[in-house]
Amino acid sequence: MATSPTPLAGGMTTRLTLALQGLDQALDAPRQQGVPLGNWRWVVRQRMAALRDALADESVGTDDGWLAARGGTAFRERNVILGRLNRLGSVVLETEAVEDVRIELKRLVGDVHHHVQRLNDLAYDDVELELGGSE
Predict the structure, then answer these.
(1) For the segment 90-113, what is each residue's pLDDT rounded down to a tens digit?
(2) Where are the chain's structural domains?
(3) Which tens digit of pLDDT belongs to each residue from 23-41?
(4) Which comes out higher in pLDDT, residue 4 or 75?
(5) Can you state the angle between helices 98-131 and 65-94, rounded to 10 degrees?
(6) Which CATH architecture has domain 6-131?
(7) DSSP states along 71-128
């Protein structure tokens, strides 16, 4: 019998989704030179940290064979995303090319959306497997 991926049954997906929305909104905020740009950088960095923490707390737990393989893929994907977040953390505070970093972070937001969808698909497939599927 397969075990449910606990973070998806609880608040993990919600936490991850909220962190993702927070970063996306911060990236869309107006960017102006001087103090407002510094404030924008700091808010984006804080939202990146919240997303990083939500991703770091995530775990996909299933013992079923084919779901375990997909869970391993999601785990590796998460680690790649965490690496990108870590690399961009200092860049967002220091770079002169703010728009380039914003674009790269928007791509990362899209990649995290896809990651969350894969986690939701895993949870759905796990429940479907436990209940015997649709047939």
Answers:
(1) 999 999 999 999 999 999 999 999
(2) 6-131
(3) 999 999 988 888 899 999 9
(4) 75
(5) 160
(6) Up-down Bundle (1.20)
(7) HHHHHHHHHHHHHHHHHHHHHHHH-S-HHHHHHHHHHHHHHHHHHHHHHHHHHHHHHH
Give the global pTM: 0.77
61's tokens: 């737990």
Which tokens sit at 35?
């103090």
Distances 11 to 20, 67, 102 between C-alpha atoms, Å:
14, 21, 28
Torsion sign (Cα): 38, 39, 45, 48: negative
Please list, in sequence order, all residues whose beta carbon lies within 8 angstroms of the beta carbon of residue 97, skipping any fewer than 6 positions away: none
The CA distances from residue 58 to 41, 83, 134, in Å, are 26, 15, 28
